Amino acid sequence: MLIIGEKINTTLKQAKEIVERKDAKALQELAKRQIDAGASMVDVNVGTRIKTETEDMKWAIKTIQEALDVACCIDSPNPEVLKAGLEVHRGKALINSTTAEKKRLEDVLASIKNFDCKVVALTMDDEGIPEDAEKRYRIAAGLIERLNREGFALDDIYIDPLIRPISTNSDSGKAVLDAIGKISTSFPGVHIICGLSNISFGLPRRSLLNRVYLAMAMAKGLDAALVDPLDKDLMATIISARALLGEDEFCANYISSFREGKLQ
């Protein structure tokens, strides 16, 4: 399970202030806290700073990697920002993201074609985000075929079936679970990722819904998630789900996590 820490995002007050001040030490500490909590990668999203997004992205990636041997998830809808991030990134980054929208797909592919990277592809086309599992699956299949044709190995492709809030459509949670199951069965080797918190938008006890849904999605084939690794209950859910799904031989990680106080 690939855990991507979501805290370096300028929609969040702490990250916004750090980037505004160009506080390198605080940024490095925020990244380190996420890695220490169990993340394998940190997301970097400075998209609210439209006028300076390119330079902010380059600064953030270089600053993080000066202190930590960690890959970044370069998160922007702007292909030029993705390219700028890749130019300064050491090692193999994860690009977040492209879609099946014709212009965006072509623009993103043109920007990243000369780099060795992984890519997140959203199940969204020129008609928007589908409501049902079957349309999500068809879009995913098309994206996988195109990315593979462009030279991306299946192991470097991460499909995001785009979780929608159940507060606005009661069937949206099940539709995404069904899509995850079909994609993971049809395309072994391809990864499935999600931004978890959308599922609970507008509802009370959001963290409870997020945790339960994450375990359900993992059982269907989800193997990567953009989450807050500082949420101890959420991380405990991931550790427990992996043990229950047979992904933790002899429950070794579960037991060691208990001994380290991570399952309190």
UniProtKB/TrEMBL annotation:
Q: Which GO terms describe its cellular component?
A: cytosol
The record's section on InterPro entries has:
Dihydropteroate_synth-like_sf, Met_Synthase/Corrinoid, Pterin-binding_dom
| Pfam (any one) | Pterin_bind
Q: Which residues cross the membrane?
A: none
Q: Keyword set for this entry?
A: Cobalamin, Cobalt, Metal-binding, Methyltransferase, Transferase
Q: Which family does it belong to?
A: Belongs to the vitamin-B12 dependent methionine synthase family.
Q: What is this protein called?
A: Methyltetrahydrofolate cobalamin methyltransferase
Ranked from the top, the taxonomy reads:
Bacteria, Candidatus Aerophobota
